[in-house]
From TrEMBL:
Domain HTH merR-type: from-to ranges: 19-88
Gene3D superfamilies found in the cross-reference section: 1.10.1660.10
Ranges in a coiled coil: 85-112
SMART domains: HTH_MERR
Keyword check for DNA-binding: yes
Organism: Mycolicibacterium chlorophenolicum
Record lineage: Bacteria, Bacillati, Actinomycetota, Actinomycetes, Mycobacteriales
Keywords: Coiled coil, DNA-binding, Stress response
Superkingdom of the source species: Bacteria
GO molecular function per UniProt: DNA binding; DNA-binding transcription factor activity
Protein name: Putative heat shock protein HspR
Keyword flag Coiled coil: yes
C-alpha cells in the first residue's frame, strides 16, 4: 500500500521534516510502542526506515496514529475497516490532486490565444425530391 497519509497536519512542511523514534511517537500518539509495531505490520501506518531498519515516525504518521485510535475507540471501526478507510482517503486525495492538475492545465490552455481557423466549409443544398 505504500505510505499512508491522511489530511491532518499535511500542510506544515516543518512537521514533515521532523521524525520521532518509536518510543516518542508512541507517547505523542498516546499508545504503546507495540501497538505502533502492530499497525506497521498490518500496513495501517508505515513509517520511514533508517538504514538499520529502525522506524522513524513523522508528525504526519503521529497524526494518522491518532486518527486510527479515534476510529477504533470512538467510532468502533475494526482494523480492517480502518485500513480500507485510509486506502480510500488516500485514493480520494490522489484524485483530488489530479483534478487540481487538470484544472490548472485547462486554465493554462484557456489563457493561450487561439489561432484563427483557416478551414473552408463547402455548403451544398440537399437534393429536392
Amino acid at each position: 500500500m505504500g505510505r499512508c497519509a491522511m489530511s491532518a497536519g499535511r500542510n506544515d512542511s516543518n512537521n514533515q521534516a521532523r521524525t520521532f523514534l518509536i518510543s516518542v511517537a508512541a507517547e505523542l500518539a498516546g499508545m504503546h510502542a507495540q501497538t505502533l509495531r502492530t499497525y506497521d505490520r498490518l500496513g495501517l501506518v508505515s513509517p520511514e526506515r533508517t538504514s538499520g531498519g529502525g522506524r522513524r515516525y513523522s508528525q504526519r504518521d503521529v497524526d494518522l496514529l491518532r486518527e486510527v485510535q479515534r476510529l477504533s475507540q470512538d467510532e468502533g471501526v475494526n482494523l480492517a475497516g480502518i485500513k480500507r478507510i485510509i486506502e480510500l482517503t488516500n485514493q480520494v486525495e490522489a484524485l483530488q490532486a489530479r483534478v487540481r492538475e487538470l484544472n490548472a492545465e485547462v486554465e493554462h490552455l484557456r489563457a493561450q490565444p487561439r489561432p484563427k481557423s483557416t478551414a473552408l466549409v463547402v455548403w451544398q443544398p440537399r437534393n429536392k425530391r
